[in-house]
Amino acid sequence: MARTLTTGAPWRVILLFAVPLLLGNVVQQLYQVADAIVVGRHLGIASLAAVGATGPLLFLLLGFAWGVTSGFAIPTAQAYGARDAERVRRSVATGTLLTGAMSVLLTAGAPLIAGPALQLLQTPPELLPEATAFTQISFLGASAVMFFNYLSAIIRAIGDSRTPLVFLTLSCLLNVGLVVLMVGVLGWGVGGAAFATVVAQAVSVGLCLEFVRRRVPALHVRRADWRVSRAEVLEHLRVGLPMGFQASIIAIGTLTVQVALNELGADAVAAYTTASRVDSLAVAFLASLGLASSMYTAQNLGGHRPDRIRRGVVQATWLAIGTAVAIGVPFILFGEQLVRLFVGEGSDGVVADAALMLEVDGYTYASLAVLFVLRGALQGLGHTMIPTATGVIELVMRVGAAIVLGAAFGFVGVVWSNPLAWIGAVVLLIPAYAREHRRLGRMPVEPRTATPTTPIPVVGPVDGSMTVDAVVTGSVPVVEPPQAARWRRLVRSERTDRAER
Fold it and tell me: Can you give the pTM of this predicted structure?
């Protein structure tokens, strides 16, 4: 159900929007956990390590796709916050065309480089055949992944974070069943696990399209909307490409970590893979608050509510820090028991190393919490330079730790690569957002007024926000506040400054 994020208590609106994202991420991570459990139990540690060895390469390209499609939804959220129905539709059309073009390129090219890329990453020879098969099948299904991410993003952009959760849950249940069938019953190996995920994502795309067709007229694109302008394409690329490159930059650092792990042997790869499966649940919680902050900020920017942006980001930061502590403590105390869910007896060395990684991450999750919220807020405001720069910092810190500390201390040194990357990014983000916080404080508060084509909500508030159960369809007189001209000048000035930077 579409709803605005520009009314209601900021912390409550962000939390209510984030909860379905949290659940969705947990569900998604759980079906990845299910893959790991089925592969690890039925095919053994070597196959589990082979799947883990593909993670950085998949993240490099599919992470780029996720970042780009999420970025394409930022202009949609800003237009929705501004109550500009035509701009929402044209943004959806632009994002759809760009997503389709990138899907074709990724699906056609990525499978061809899978094997050579894994060899370049020094994947252990005994893992290479299964790792290559898993990667190629995953890349062949890249279009399904991209379009599901994009459709979920534009549905969230209009304030609905619950519907993508429903479709994702159904997809995950299907994925778990297919993994058990294809790996455990049919014996298709790691390729079956990859194929199950592709099929599940394709089903999710179909569900999203049908939902939009039946229930979300705000996202119905008209024939004229497909004739997108060069300016609209450039605007979406301006936001989407940096978010995609940021994910890829982070992935390059992850690739370096993978190389360091490969040099340490299959047990090190298995330990890191197993700990990452558990760790990903924590990252999912914190990433959801970051995404909620991004959409909240974008809608309130479109709605001319800088005061709500300031309060909301501060409150979201404290929510994220509290969540980080609540997650980190169990990882510190019960890491070994969690790792035992993935590996059987006779793997004490793998268990000990994986538990150590969970302990180190548990102590440093607060820095990751601040990173996600502040970076999401800056992206929602349309900034690209600082978020991208933080990705570069993460790359430098992660590569440096993997190479220098890994050589000096082995697996322990590699484990510290992620926490050091988070801390390095936060060092830049805090002063960057503090400047933006002060700038927002100087802006006038001017909620969007009604126009002759703006639907007027007459039922609400619900759950800290507004729902539209009926609209006024006649012409509505517009009385523009005296601060309107000043606001437009400030917004134009900010856009000019960003373009110059």
Answer: 0.68
The C-alpha torsion from 478 through 483 and 485 to 486, rounded to 10°, is: -160
Could you tell me the two tokens for 81? 């916050």
Could you give the residue ranges of the DSSP H alpha helices within 44-84?
45-53, 55-81
Q: What is the dihedral of CA 361, 363, 365, 367, to 10 degrees?
A: -120
Nearest to 269 by CA among 283, 279, 259, 284: 259
Task: Single out the residue of 302, 284, 319 nearest to residue 16, CA to CA.
Answer: 319
Exposed, middle or buried by CB within 10 Å (0-12, 13-18, 19+), for 15?
A: middle
d(CA 422, CA 415): 13
356, 357, 362, 366 alpha-carbon torsion, rounded to 10°: 140
Helix crossing, 55-81 with 45-53: angle to 10°? 50
Return the amino acid letter for 61: L
- Cα–Cα distance list, 467 to 60, 460, 492 (Å): 39, 6, 31
For residue 367, give the amino acid letter.
S
364 in helix, strand or coil? helix
Q: What is the pLDDT of residues 52-101, one digit of tens each?
A: 778 777 877 777 887 898 889 989 988 888 888 999 999 999 999 999 99
